[in-house]
Design goal:
Elements (H helix, E strand, L loop, with lengths): L4 E5 L4 H11 L3 E6 L12 E4 L1 H9 L3 H6 L6 E5 L7 E4 H8 L4 E4 H10 L6 E4 L3 E4 L4 E4 L5 E2 L2 E4 L6 H7 L6 E14 L7 E7 L2 E6 L6 E9 L11 H12 L4 H7 L8 E9 L5 E2 L2 E3 L2 H4 L8 H18 L4 H30 L4 H16 L2 H9 L23
Parallel strand pairs: 1-2, 1-11, 2-7, 4-13, 11-18
Antiparallel strand pairs: 3-6, 4-5, 8-9, 9-10, 12-15, 12-16, 13-14, 14-15, 17-18
Helix pairs in contact: 1-10, 2-10, 4-13, 10-11
Length: 407
């Protein structure tokens, strides 16, 4: 069976990227998104795009817009308990050691750019979601009438509805990596432009930053837990109570940020959890990005991996002439190594990003200080010696398809 009509669930990052390439290859693409409209808030949290995602974005013609929307955060100022003076770190050197091509951009900005690149060639249905997927391709929706598609792709994130409908009990095969993340909006004047202000203690970390084009600032909170807290991912009130209790008294500046928790216009909270599906395809359905192989939000390069995965899935479907059985198998083979390496990287990053001890805090701060002090060429050369470490994301292979990233 040669598939031509493809339904994608999710219009954040991997969904529009997949839609772009499928449309280029001649597929008829529909994207359904639970949100009532495209996200145009410039919100969410900052995400990183490394070399593979940058190459794919350049081939999509959106690189100038990405560069216009970078956060511009080039300095990290670290406050430690008992530290007399904050430690300043040159983030440009840190990023330069990790990647030859990199941008930091707000997640909603990124989604808007990818959506704009596809909206004239792809059917978007907002304010709806999938309720049932039949073996023959019949799909039912919360609001719209049932329709038939040749293929269905879940690009709907870590808490994927498509994964739940397709994989049942297996959909919950996750591993908690010991961290929680919270992101919220702040008045713009709280943050110093170009600087990420960080307060770091054993087991918890709070920081905030802004960007020239944003109307507000963002605060991020990381904290450790040995076991998962029994809070539903949509219970915002309980999540805010947990953040208050965890960070109260950390510093007067952090307390001032917490005071605005109830009034923040945007709030995100989730566990840093790794998805462990051995296969992310079944029948006419496959998964892309965090829906299928999330290595862990904020610690595993999941955004770049999602862009790469969407590009590969579209390319394999095109090369297989729409034969999804052959294409899905090739897609999983091609992504197997990047997914495995991203999972391993995320597990290490989750242990190190928020140290559990004072010694760990000392090591993290002074390691960043050394990289910042070294000449950029030296730190980059040292980092290249280990493609499984900070250079892991840059070392992922970008396959070449008939229409795609130039050789």
């Amino acid at each position: 069976m040669r598939a031509r009509r493809v339904l994608i669930s999710g219009a954040s990052v991997s969904g529009p990227v997949l839609a772009y390439w499928l449309a280029r290859y001649g597929f008829e693409v529909t994207v359904v998104e639970r949100a009532p409209e495209p996200r145009r808030t410039g919100g969410g949290h900052a995400v990183d795009l490394f070399r593979p995602a940058m190459e794919i974005s350049e081939a999509m013609g959106v690189l100038p817009r990405l560069e216009e929307r970078v956060t511009g955060t080039n300095r990290l100022r670290i406050h430690r308990p008992g530290g007399r003076r904050p430690v300043d770190v040159d983030l440009a050197k840190v990023y330069g050691a990790a990647s030859d091509r990199h941008v930091e951009i707000m997640r909603d900005d990124l989604g808007e750019i990818y959506y704009d690149a596809t909206r004239h060639d792809v059917e978007y249905v907002f304010g709806d979601s999938i309720t049932a997927i039949g073996d023959d391709g019949d799909v039912e929706f919360e609001r719209a009438a049932p329709r038939r598609f040749d293929l269905v792709v879940g690009a709907d994130g870590l808490h994927s509805n498509v994964r739940r409908l397709t994989f049942g009990e297996e959909a919950g095969r996750t591993t908690f990596l010991g961290l929680y993340l919270c992101v919220l909006s702040l008045p713009r004047e709280v943050a110093q432009e170009g600087t990420f202000t960080l307060h770091l203690e054993p087991g918890r970390m709070a920081g905030w930053y802004g960007a020239a084009h944003l109307g507000d600032a963002r605060a991020g909170f990381f904290f450790r837990r040995d076991t998962e807290v029994p809070i539903h991912h949509r219970d915002v009130a309980a999540q805010k109570d947990l953040v208050r209790a965890t960070f109260a008294g950390m510093s007067p500046e952090v307390d001032a940020v917490l005071a605005g928790l109830d009034d923040t216009p945007s709030f995100y909270f989730d566990s840093i959890t790794q998805l462990e599906l051995g296969s992310w395809s079944r029948g006419r359905v496959t998964l892309v990005g965090d829906a299928g192989y999330c290595p862990g939000p904020a610690v595993g390069g999941s955004t770049s991996l999602a862009v790469l995965g969407a590009y590969v899935l579209a390319g394999e479907l095109a090369e297989a002439g729409g034969d999804h059985t052959r294409a899905f198998a090739a897609y999983e083979r091609e992504l197997a190594d990047p997914v495995r390496r991203s999972r391993a990287f995320a597990r290490g990053a989750a242990r190190g990003i928020v140290p559990a001890s004072g010694l760990g805090v000392w090591g993290l701060v002074n390691g960043a200080r050394v990289v910042s002090a070294l000449p950029a060429g030296v730190s980059r050369s040292l980092a290249r010696l280990n493609s499984g470490g900070v250079r892991m994301h840059d070392s992922m292979r970008v396959p070449r398809y008939a229409i795609g990233v130039p050789r």
